[in-house]
Specification:
Number of helices: 0
Radius of gyration: 27 Å
Strand content: over 45%
Order of helices and strands: EEEEEEEEEEEEE
Length: 159
């Protein structure tokens, strides 16, 4: 007779004997068969998130939004001018589902990616990175007055 000692995050299907993990994190499962016992550690990472939107805002800013994962304890979001995130990378770790990056360079196209994480004891488990999405191009409109705001007076000297 085999007996499984389970935790609050794991259960066993009585029909198939399969262990079902209910939550993210690190779990140790003890399996007993007669006098012998075996401990198995299972690590379950959070689900890979997806970027909902990445919008440029006035003043060299980029706001990124993503869907909430109830099983994650936080998110790590990155932006970069490089599609492969090898250079010019800005990162931020936070518990909320949106963040605004500031002080960005004008005329540059920024890519966005995100991953969720779960803190389990001393260990942090990360999901895979989402697909890189174009967040937007930072553009600054020059402060040039239109022609309706002023009158240009020309004076010609008479000799």
């Amino acid at each position: 007779m085999c007996q499984l000692i389970l935790t609050k995050s794991a259960a066993v299907d009585k029909n198939t004997g399969r262990v079902i993990i209910k939550n993210t994190g690190v779990e140790t499962i003890t399996i007993k068969a007669g006098k012998a016992s075996k401990k198995v550690t299972v690590k379950v990472s959070p689900r890979k998130p997806s970027v909902k939107s990445g919008n440029t805002a006035k003043g060299k800013k980029l706001t990124v939004r993503w869907a909430k994962d109830k099983k994650a304890s936080g998110y790590q979001v990155q932006i970069s001018t490089d599609k492969k995130f090898k250079k010019n990378v800005k990162s931020k770790s936070l518990p909320k589902t949106s963040y605004t990056f500031t002080k960005l360079k004008t005329g540059k196209k920024y890519y966005v990616r995100i991953r969720s994480y779960k803190k389990s004891g001393k260990e942090t488990l990360y999901s895979a990175w989402s697909k890189a999405k174009v967040g937007g191009k930072i553009e600054v409109k020059p402060d040039v007055p239109d022609s309706s705001c002023c009158t240009i007076l020309l004076f010609y000297g008479v000799s």
